[in-house]
User: Which sequence fits this backbone?
């Protein structure tokens, strides 16, 4: 991850591109202001609008098969200085002149190595929409809703310790699919039977399923199937803070990253596509069941043809907080577009014990009054 106002990139070819956004009034570094389309100076308060990028191809997807063959355009490849966090494995990128930092996910010290890593450039991003103070409010409200969370942790979070604004790497995939299927359609019908109930003969309707074999074809175009490109955050957490407003993706520009961090992807393209195909397969099976119809369905065989696969490497914004409380680390993440919060759910042993005792006392009281009323 790079902590900027300066954004350093080394394209394939070795020439360093460094973007520094200095305030024209006081010369201090400017950063992107969440919820705006502006750079802001934290020293004198000056704001400057970010000019829109009018390149119609700026967010165009890259052909997947060409990328697998190594035919990614040179303009879409870059090299960055990175190191893996020794605790959580986050792929930390370092700007020029920076040799040590702390991991924003788990607060572990990370020292830069001497090598560079070659990877596909981010093609698009969603800019930060909520600022740090609103992220703090969302986190405090979420922790406050967890009754069994330790009071000390809640108080520690409310003290306003700085959160980290991070652009997390994702892949998106587009694909056209056609699927031939074989299966069975089950339709419910009823038969009337006479049974004995309480010594009387009663006529009842019993359901049966009539099965018949079916064949068919379904087609679907998948647009922006999203796959997490990081191993630093639990996938369950990033899934829980979705969905993301992907139609609002903007072409990548270093101005949007100024003042924030950007994590390098750890999930390679082939592995990400395998996960995307699994997501597609679930949707295709739902399409097939709808196409079969009836009350129940059995899918016996699927033959899916996938064509026109394209992809993008995109960055999505989150606020993270890593709190150490009584020797244990708790990590939380806030969607910097919607304010949704997720994280490790800490539990207070004292609160759980008190709740159990209270439940036992309540049960004993109810049992006592029940005995008196007999």
Assistant:
């Amino acid at each position: 991850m790079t902590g900027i106002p300066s954004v350093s990139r080394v394209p394939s070819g070795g020439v360093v591109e460094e973007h520094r956004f200095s305030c024209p009034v006081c010369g201090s570094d400017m950063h992107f202001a969440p919820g705006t389309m502006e750079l802001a100076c934290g020293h004198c308060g000056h704001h400057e609008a970010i000019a829109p990028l009018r390149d119609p191809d700026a967010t165009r997807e890259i052909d997947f098969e060409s990328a697998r063959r190594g035919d990614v355009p040179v303009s879409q490849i870059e090299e960055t200085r990175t190191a893996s966090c020794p605790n959580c494995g986050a792929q930390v990128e370092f700007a020029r002149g920076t040799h040590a930092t702390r991991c924003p996910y788990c607060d572990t010290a990370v020292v830069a190595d001497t090598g560079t890593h070659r990877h596909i450039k981010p093609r698009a991003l969603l800019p930060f929409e909520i600022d740090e103070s609103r992220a703090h409010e969302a986190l405090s409200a979420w922790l406050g809703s967890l009754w069994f969370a330790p009071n000390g942790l809640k108080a520690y979070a409310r003290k306003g310790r700085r959160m980290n604004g991070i652009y997390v790497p994702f892949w998106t995939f587009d694909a056209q699919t056609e699927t031939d299927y074989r299966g069975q359609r089950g339709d419910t019908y009823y038969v009337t039977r006479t049974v004995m109930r309480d010594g009387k003969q009663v006529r009842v309707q019993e359901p049966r399923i009539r099965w018949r074999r079916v064949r068919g074809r379904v087609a679907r175009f998948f647009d922006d199937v999203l796959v997490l490109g990081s191993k630093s955050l639990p996938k369950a957490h990033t899934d829980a803070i979705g969905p993301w407003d992907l139609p609002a993706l903007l072409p990548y520009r270093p101005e949007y990253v100024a003042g924030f961090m950007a994590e390098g992807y750890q999930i390679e393209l082939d592995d990400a596509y395998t996960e995307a195909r699994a997501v597609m397969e679930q949707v295709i099976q739902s399409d097939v069941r709808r196409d079969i119809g009836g009350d129940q369905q059995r899918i016996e065989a699927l033959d899916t043809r996938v064509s026109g696969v394209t992809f993008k490497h995109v960055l999505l914004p989150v606020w993270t907080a890593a709190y150490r409380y009584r020797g244990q680390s708790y990590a939380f993440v806030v969607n910097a577009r919607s304010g949704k919060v997720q994280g490790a759910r800490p539990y207070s042993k004292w609160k759980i014990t008190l709740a159990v005792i209270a439940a036992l006392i309540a049960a004993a009281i109810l049992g006592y009054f029940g005995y008196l009323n007999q």
